[in-house]
Amino acid sequence: MKPLLMAVAIIVASLSCPQAAFAQNTGAANPTPVKQWWNARYPRPAGPNPNAKKMPLISVRGNHFVDPQENTVLFRGLSIADPDKIDGEGHWNRDFFVHVQQTGARLVRIPVHPIAWRTRTPQGYLILLDQAVDWCTELGMYVDIDWHSIGNLHTGLFQDPMYQTSLQETFEFWRTIASHFAGNNTVAFYELFNEPTMFSNKLGPISWSDWKQINEELIATIRAYDRDRIPLVAGFDWAYDLTPLHLAPINAEGIGYVTHPYPNKRPKPWEPKWEEDFGFAASQYPIIATEIGFWRRPGTPDDGYGPAIINYLEGRGISWLAWVYDPEWGPRMISSWDTFALTDEGEFFSHAMKSQALPAPPAQTPVTH
After folding, report:
1. Are 151 and 203 in contact (CB under 8 A)?
2. What contacts 352, CB < 8 A, 6 or more positions away?
3. pLDDT band with cut points at 50, 70 and 90 for residue 34
């Protein structure tokens, strides 16, 4: 073909097929399709779920959680490990949740670590959460979805790399979760942030006013998508201290508060200090102790924490969740993936979920997440 005719042919081809012209000009036999970034979307709401309304809707009335008949509901349950961890170890299946149900748990806390959320991608992680919610619905258990970070959202400093996140990612997480699970009664709670802490200012300062504003903005964002789930707001000092509620409670209706009253938070006698640090708030607001636990060291004497904390919480109408149903993270409730045998801690809390006749518990050891 003569040069002039070839040039005309290329121009005509480019007008009718820009990608063909690109291939002609670059010499690419199989050009890479143009990625249509303008069609990208955030995860969309879940499609209709026939199981979404099988569990009665839980809501807030005064200082209690209630069912549709206005009966007060006090939750007893446990935290599992991060679903990404459980799946990676080959145990993410319905049978796992059957074992959880057999402990007597009525509420299952699902901790989502920011690093797992990013690594698996939101779309991939939602597959795990959908499975968990469906299995829990079948087994008659409610779900608490927990954004499991430890640190200071205000400064962007965190206790360990697995907790690294940001305000933007936290808002994106809850926008995604609220959009996806809106209308699903099995998901009763959105636990906004696991354990806020300054770690003696090693993670920088944050005022209660700062924390209050962050949570109020998160709640407003969630409720643009989902008005029925109950947001849970944690106190300072690794989610232990709720004393700022005396002067400046969160400006939002229909929420609950979180405390983590591990035995090392205060010396004995615990009960007066628990009342001072978080128990007083139960007179006005619904509260969940979303982490309690202990671990027996061989040869250590029983310190009485187990019956003390259960009797105190239930006497105050405070719901509770034991940490953690996993054979590696501690305090661990099971000793092995092979048998799902309960540890001393697991036996104690399982008995407490099923009965108010509480056995003597073992002593404490450190917590791992």
Report:
1. yes
2. 76, 306, 310, 358
3. low
Cα–Cα nearest to 266, from 245, 238, 288: 238
Asked if the model's pLDDT at residue 44 lies above 80, the reply is no
Burial of 97 (0-12, 13-18, 19+ CB in 10 A): buried
In the chain, what are the domains? 1-41 (no CATH), 54-354 (3.20.20.80)
Is the pLDDT at 109 greater than 90? The verdict is: yes
Show Cβ contacts of residue 104 under 8 Å, excluding neighbours closer than 6 positions.
Answer: 76, 350, 353, 354
Residue pair 289/322 in contact (Cβ under 8 Å)? The answer is no
Q: Locate tokens 């006013």: which residue?
A: 209
Per-residue pLDDT for 306 more than 70? Answer: yes
- pLDDT per residue as tens digits for the range 323-358: 999 999 999 999 999 999 999 999 999 999 998 533
Residue 311 · residue 357 · CB < 8 Å: no
DSSP state of 32: P
Q: For residues 185 and 56, is the Cβ–Cβ distance under 8 A?
A: yes
In 10 A of CB 170, how many CB atoms?
19
